[in-house]
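User: I'm writing a tutorial on reading structure tokens. Could you give me a worked example: one chain, its sequence, then its tokens, then a sentence or two explaining what the tokens reveal?
Assistant: Sure. Here is the example chain.
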Amino acid sequence: MAHSFSYSHYDLGMQRGGTVIEITLSAIANVRLMSHANFDLFKNTRQHKFLGGVAKQSPIRLKIPESGHWHVVVDMEGHPGKAESSIKVVPQAPQKPAPRFSAA
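And here are its predicted structure tokens:
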């Protein structure tokens, strides 16, 4: 059974936990960050888990909780009109080495 509403799907592929995804929207929309297994459930209109929810401002940032294959869905369920969306991975700042102290 297919969804009765349309949605935009972004396949993020394999991502490391802690990676930040930035989603830019032209209108209020639902944003769902899902694991690959939960995206399969979503596609089949089954109960699924996701991070995100109603995005009332743009851009929004979501952090991938653990390494794996991830998807983002932007949909208008419960909202009028259609939102244009774009997505990007926010570059991670390189980890600075811990400062070293010498004995005085």
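What the tokens reveal: The radius of gyration is 17 Å. Residues 7-90 form one domain.
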